[in-house]
Design brief:
The complex is a heterodimer of chains A (227) and B (670). With 227 residues, chain A is mostly helical. Chain A has six helices and no strands. The termini of chain B are far apart. The chains are: A mainly alpha (227), B mainly alpha (670).
Chain lengths: 227, 670
């Protein structure tokens, strides 16, 4: 890796210094005053920021599914309700897998900071295996429900349940594909600036999957268990 | 093997779509043949199809929007002519065809005409006004465009292969469920909007990031031109609203494809939830369209009044006020749902309040003109025509915001007249103004003034003759989407609207004539200096057309009207600013990623519509392959050497110097 390709400290600095409007007054050396006069931001900031905007839009999409589920939660059409269907131990296990995977994903970011090829690969691999375990458990839950005649066609409640949980599951699956591609890229190309930007985005994505799961756990399973 | 697709999908017994399809196919093939024979394929591929330059993408968006505007207008001609003859008669369009025509008209006009035209203007103008070289994610920008084109293509394929939705442009269930419409019409609707919706969402992300993170040094938020502010508000709305559309359409898709029960009549489905969700997107959508339109008028009126925009900060505040409140009014689209008096009152009041923001803007535009040296060029008369027309549309909107009145006017032609009044009078007039205003920047020559004025007057008069009768006939009780009718008092008004649409037709012809005449006389209409209108913002400081890198050096901004300042300084000192120190410039490399993704998206979409499952698999696998291939590339940028930058910029400076020589130095006192 040539020196021109390494990421310099200044590249990850946000020239807008959000929330630091008075730095200049207090002896800071920043020209930008917090009103956006500092010129174009660095690529690292631009990519991270844009990806955050995408994640927010994704959260809006999930909120539409959550709203639909909230409306339809009691529309069981004489079929089974959440209380009849949910298996708390399985859901607890799924939650554990996902939360631990978020932790290991964070460790992979730490390893990236230390530029350790080995530990990045190890932590990403663990993250991916936990994600796979989560998906397998979820698939088992879904299959079990369909077996007892409680598939998405049974009632509007089950339609919205399968849709919102399935949408999260699809996100995890896409995340796993991305994770595999990411591991290959880091292995082949090393810690280039563009790879580092992608690691940042991947980490954000994976953590947001966790955030969505917390909402799912609360709205779908905790509240649904009481209905 | 081919799912539901068979030879019966082509409507052999219906001459209208067959002939229309054949004509379109002949035109497309002729253009393709001309391109191939003349050897333009490499040029098109390298300079346009794979281009990630925001200016090129903007032009392609405009072209797509204009073509689709014509397509949607032909649908309008069919509807008006059908209603002109279908008095006590069946007319020439059978009901199932008429229903497809009005559904396609609405879908095409909003998603594939208005949206591309507005996004095209933003693409071309925003980076130039911000004084930077491109948007945040250039390849994503190209992908957005091509996915939008995919949606437009799928809708148009439905003309000859299969059918389009017979549901109206929002596909309300339960009519749009398989129980009532088992055909492929609604599926065409769903997949074209889902695919193009992804493109629009990515545009929103791209532009929010661009405007908030990439601006010339010194351009603080309150130094951005108002068009950039309105583009920011519009794209924030895209980011917040389009995911709701995607989610809603996915739910309907699940109902249709996998037997879910989100919106069905049975098993607990909730139809009104669809209406709520779709309008939670739908109302912000009209502001997504009209806010950039307000931005265009702000730029045009300020330039041609020779004055800074009156009340810049109140304009920014009004824009953001509208941006937020537009989220809190959606229920006024269905006051008749029966949510109760207090809910209706809340939404009635919030709808009336949003008019306050627009009112602030109207006064600001009028005060900008007050005391100015007004030049009534084509963009300016579109803007003045807009002010008159939009006030009428806004006031009928406030009428509709009153729930008791809305119970009478709901689904009548009064409503149809209202939203055409604000969308044509607001968005289309703005697009025409913006097109004429920024055309010389894009192509280096102005559009012909006489034909521009003719286009305006024909469209202005045509608009009033078409839609004022619809207000009246709506008050007389005529509902929308009638294939035939037998009420005698409606008849004269319907015929008057028919006359109006003929005038609009002449307006469209005049618009095409303007383009043809301007291209033929481009040498006399040439814009040498890059500043044909005596403009005030940064896009006029670069050459026309701008070089790929837009600005040789990023401008240093120290006020609200940076280019006006630069010009004043040049006139005072009677010379240009000192030549800058030219550096090599890194620019993003072209990429076919967008085109290839859209190619596979088209195949996947078509396969999903016709239930060709193996082809769906192929399409998705190919999409993933494109993603990996793109991610694997090593060189993302190319470098333009400093000499090349210097050569381009010196040419621009020579033209400016010649202008100074001719206009300032000679007339200055000795």
């Amino acid at each position: 890796m040539s020196t021109s390709e390494t990421l310099h400290e200044r590249d990850i600095v946000d020239p807008y210094r959000l929330g630091r409007a008075h730095a200049a007054l207090h002896g800071g050396r920043e020209y930008a005053t917090g009103h956006g006069e500092g010129g174009p931001a660095s690529k690292y900031v631009i990519v991270g920021y844009g990806f955050w905007i995408f994640l927010l839009s994704d959260i809006v999409m999930f909120s539409a599914f959550f709203a639909a589920h909230a409306v339809l939660q009691t529309a069981t059409a004489g079929g089974p309700s959440g209380r009849d269907l949910f298996d708390p131990s399985s859901i607890a296990l799924e939650t554990a897998c996902l939360l631990v995977s978020s932790f290991t994903c964070g460790l992979s970011a730490v390893a990236t900071g230390a530029r350790s090829q080995l530990w990045v690969q190890v932590f990403l691999l663990i993250t991916g295996l936990l994600g796979l375990a989560f998906l397998a458990l979820e698939a088992r839950d879904f299959a079990g429900m369909v077996m007892q005649g409680a598939g998405p066609q049974r009632s509007a409640f089950l339609s919205s349940l399968f849709a919102v949980v399935g949408c999260h599951g699809l996100h995890v699956s896409a995340g796993l594909l991305w994770l595999g591609t990411m591991m290959a890229q880091i292995f082949v190309k090393g810690f280039r600036p563009n790879i580092l930007r992608r690691m940042l985005c991947f980490n954000l994505f994976w953590h947001v999957l966790d955030v969505i799961w917390v909402a799912l756990f609360t709205i779908v399973y905790l509240i649904g268990e009481g209905r | 093997m081919l799912g539901k697709l068979s030879w019966d999908a082509i409507p052999w017994d219906q001459p209208i779509p067959l002939i229309a399809g054949a004509v379109v196919l002949a035109i497309v093939l002729a253009v393709l043949a001309w391109v191939v024979i003349k050897g333009h394929v490499p040029y098109l591929w390298h300079e346009w199809i794979t281009s990630v330059d925001h200016k090129r993408i903007g032009v392609m968006y405009m072209l797509l929007g204009l073509v689709m505007l014509v397509r949607g207008f032909i649908d309008a001609l069919m509807m008006r002519s059908q209603q002109a003859v279908a008095f006590h008669a069946a007319g020439y369009l059978p009901p199932e065809h008429f229903d497809q025509v009005f559904s396609a008209h609405g879908t095409i006009m909003i998603f594939f005409a208005a949206m591309p035209l507005v996004i095209g203007l933003m693409n071309f103008v925003v980076p130039l006004q911000l004084g930077v070289r491109d948007v945040a994610f250039p390849t994503l920008n190209s992908t957005s465009f091509w996915l939008t084109a995919t949606g437009a293509l799928l809708v148009n394929i439905s003309l000859v292969i299969g059918e389009f939705a017979r549901t109206g442009w929002l596909a309300y269930p339960p009519l749009s469920e398989t129980t009532y419409l088992p055909g492929v019409g609604v599926d065409y609707y769903l997949w074209s909007l889902l695919i193009s919706g992804v493109g629009t969402l990515m545009t929103g992300i791209n532009f929010v990031t661009t405007i908030l993170k990439i601006r010339a040094p010194g351009m603080s938020y309150l130094r951005m031109p108002v068009f950039c502010w309105t583009a920011l508000a519009s794209n924030l709305l895209i980011v917040a609203a389009f995911p709701i559309l995607t989610a809603t359409l996915v739910m309907l898709t699940l109902d249709r494809y996998l037997g879910f029960h989100f919106f069905t009549n049975e098993a607990g489905g909730n139809i009104m939830m669809f209406i709520n969700l779709i309008w939670a997107w739908g109302h912000p959508e009209v502001y997504i369209l009209v806010l950039p339109a307000f931005g265009v008028f702000s730029e045009v009126i300020s330039t041609f009044s020779g004055k800074p925009l009156f009340g810049y900060r109140s304009m920014v505040a009004a824009t953001l006020f509208i941006c937020i409140v537009s989220y809190m009014v959606w229920l006024h689209h269905f006051f008749t749902m029966g949510a109760g008096g207090s809910v209706n009152a809340v939404f009635g009041i919030s709808t009336s309040i949003i008019a306050v923001g627009t009112g602030v803007k109207i006064y600001n535009w009028m005060f900008t003109m007050y005391g100015g040296q007004i030049r009534y060029t084509t963009p300016m008369i579109w803007s003045v025509g807009f002010i008159f027309t939009f006030i009428i549309g806004g006031m009928t909107g406030v009428m509709l915001a009153v729930p008791p009145a809305d119970f009478q006017l709901h689904n009548s032609l009064f409503l149809v007249a209202h939203f055409h009044n604000v969308i044509i009078g607001g968005v289309v007039f703005a697009v025409m103004a913006g097109l004429t205003y920024w055309f010389p920047k894009a192509f280096g020559f102005r559009l012909h003034e006489g034909w521009g004025q003719a286009t305006f007057w024909l469209n202005f008069v045509g608009f009033y003759v078409t839609f004022m009768p619809l207000y009246i006939v709506g008050l007389l009780g005529m509902t929308r989407r009638l294939q035939h009718y037998d009420v005698a008092i409606w008849r004269p008004w319907v015929l008057a609207a028919g006359v109006g649409v003929v005038i609009l037709c002449f307006g469209a012809v005049a618009q095409v004539a303007q383009l043809v005449v301007s291209i033929r006389r481009r040498h006399e209409l040439r814009d040498e200096t890059g500043d044909p209108w005596n403009g005030r913002s940064l896009e006029w400081s670069t050459a026309s057309p701008p070089p790929a890198f837009n600005f040789a050096v990023l401008p240093n901004v120290s006020g609200e009207e940076p280019y006006w300042q630069i010009k004043r300084r040049a006139i005072q000192t009677q010379q240009l600013a000192a030549e800058p120190d030219y550096r090599p410039i890194e620019m993003p490399r072209n990429s076919p990623t967008g085109f290839i993704s859209a190619f596979f998206a088209t195949i996947t979409g078509f396969a999903l519509i016709w239930h060709i499952w193996w082809m769906v698999g192929v399409g998705i696998a190919a999409a993933y392959a494109v993603f990996v291939w793109f991610a694997w590339r090593d060189v993302e940028e190319y470098v333009i050497p400093a000499e090349e930058v210097a050569r381009a910029d010196r040419e621009r400076r020579r033209a400016r110097d010649a202008w100074l020589e001719a206009n300032v130095r000679t007339s200055a006192p000795a």
